[in-house]
Amino acid sequence: MLTLIITILPLNAHLGGEKKIIGKWEAQEKGEVGSIVFFEKKKREKFAFASLTASGETLGGPYASPAQGRVTYTINDRSKPIKVNFDINMDGEKYQMLAIAEFEGKNQLKMAIGEIGGSRPVEFTNKNTTLFIRKKK
Questions:
Q1: What is the pTM of this model?
Q2: How far is the C-alpha of 49 from the C-alpha of 69, rounded, in Å?
Q3: Are 112 and 128 in contact (CB under 8 A)?
Q4: By three-state DSSP, how is residue 11 classified?
């Protein structure tokens, strides 16, 4: 399940990619359902927030404190594939995960996410890729 949590972790956005990614996405891995919600960046906020749910536990969201696990994201949709950076602040400790993403239609998002503190994947493989389905915009 840790793989699923890592797989569904965060995106702070910019322009076109941000609008496309906003919403709730779900993925199934090894019989368990996980989800990620990408929140739209508000004018008064410095970051765009995300929340992750796996095994019934949620991390992040726009109202989460660092003690609860704050997850923010950034997107570079000018690159092919799209580059996604996830920033996690948990109990004062900061982590980053680098990912690539590609839309497969309007309601499917393919993502490959690297290990925490590791390098960004350079391609999509069967081992590193998860397909997310949009559930709500």
A1: 0.79
A2: 11
A3: yes
A4: coil
Quick check: 13 and 87 in contact, CB under 8 A? no
Give the amino acid at 105.
G
**Confidence category of residue 73, pLDDT binned at 50, 70, 90:** very high
| Range list of H helices, 8-129 | 15-21
Hey, which bits of 6-123 come out as E strands? 23-29, 32-38, 48-54, 57-60, 70-76, 82-90, 93-103, 108-113
Q: How far does the chain reach from its first CA to its final CA, in angstroms?
A: 25
The pLDDT of residue 7 is 43
132: β partners: 109
- pLDDT confidence of 18, banded at 50, 70, 90? low
Contact 109, 82 (CB under 8 A): no
Buried b (16+ CB within 10 A) or exposed e, 27-65: beeeeeebbbbbbebeeeeebbbbbbbbeeeebbbbebe
